[in-house]
Amino acid sequence: MRVRLFIAAVLFLAGPQIASAQCRPPANSNEAKLLAFYAVPLAFSAEGVGPRLPAGAVIVTGELTYVPTAPVSISRTNLCYPPKSERSGLANVLPRPRVTVGLGNGFSVELSYLPPVTVVDATPSLGGVAVAWAAPDKYIGGKLDLALRAHATIGYVDGPITCPQSSLQQTSPTQPCYSNTASKDRYAPNVIGGEVIVGSHTSSIGWYAGAGYSALSPHFQVGYKSLGGFVDNTKVDVTLSRISAFAGALYTMSHWLDLTAQLYSVPQDATTGRLGINWRVR
Model pTM? Predict the structure, then answer.
């Protein structure tokens, strides 16, 4: 690893060069922890559990997810490129639409896509897909609803992470961020998982709680060019697994409209909150 850092320093001095290293840091490294941290708010978690949707039912949801800032303890990286602190918090809020369609027999499918519209410094092209099965009403002891759900988060978020505008410097070519142009980096969470959800719902108020397991293969690619022409396209990949827990509440305003709130946590990485509004189209 020290050899890689030495080579990077030489390239900074040598003028026009390209670095396209493939870096696979261990699971206990700051690099891996940082990639896992930001997979938490991007995960396509469940919106709740409730009555089985009939075939053809359509629910449109708009949600806002809080994106926490990574702690200082993991934001400094030193394995895949010269040691430095990463400015990984591109935006504090992630808006996301989703559409749920009933398939009949308790099955439903959920789809989501966040188009490349820049929010603060983050430009996403992020998708989610899930398939769920809701057990017959009040399946557990005649009191609770039960659902099983499989989900995946695909796509990426672009933004200046390794060298944002605030970190650029033009005084020392051997130090990081020797440039007048912010980096154009890309982060892909790549999450696949499953969840078990239980809950209950009255005429106007509902609650739910659940737990899940996810396999993560997050990918990060540097997009940096120095004043001397040095181009860094280093790719960082890790393979991880995580346990999640979540709980939420739902308030039914009318037959067509619900308000939702959720606390979602991966204890090993981060905790986030989500607010949403559901509109039953049909």
Answer: 0.86
